[in-house]
From TrEMBL:
Protein name, UniProt field: Heat shock factor-binding protein 1
Annotated GO CC locations: cytosol; nucleus
Region annotation (Disordered) ranges: 58-80
Single annotated GO MF: transcription corepressor activity
Any one Gene Ontology BP term: cellular heat acclimation
Keywords for this protein: Nucleus
Function: Negative regulator of the heat shock response. Negatively affects HSF1 DNA-binding activity. May have a role in the suppression of the activation of the stress response during the aging process.
Cell compartments where the protein resides: Nucleus
InterPro entries to which the protein is assigned, alphabetical: HS1-bd
Species whose genome carries this gene: Clupea harengus (Atlantic herring)
Subunit structure: Homohexamer. Associates with heptad repeats of HSF1 trimers and probably also HSF1 monomers, and with HSP70. Association with HSF1 trimers and HSP70 coincides with attenuation of heat shock response and the conversion of HSF1 trimer to monomer.
Organism phylogeny: Eukaryota, Metazoa, Chordata, Craniata, Vertebrata
UniProt similarity note: Belongs to the HSBP1 family.
One Pfam family in the UniProt entry: HSBP1
Amino acid sequence: MSEPDPKSVQDMTAVVQTLLQQMQDKFQTMSDQIIGRIDEMSTRIDDLEKNIADLMTQAGVEEGEGGETKPTEGSAQGAD
């Protein structure tokens, strides 16, 4: 059995290295996009939580322990 041609081994090595580099670049791009979307989602959730808290304050409701809501003192609820 003859040994492989050194030129063909070099060519194959170059092709494999190129493919691996392309895959790494694509994975890095995808990773950056995912992280960007997670950061954006986090910001939107923070804004949503703030807006909900503001609405609850305007409605005269505060959040108690365990996530239950109750009227704040001096609110219009139950003032009949």
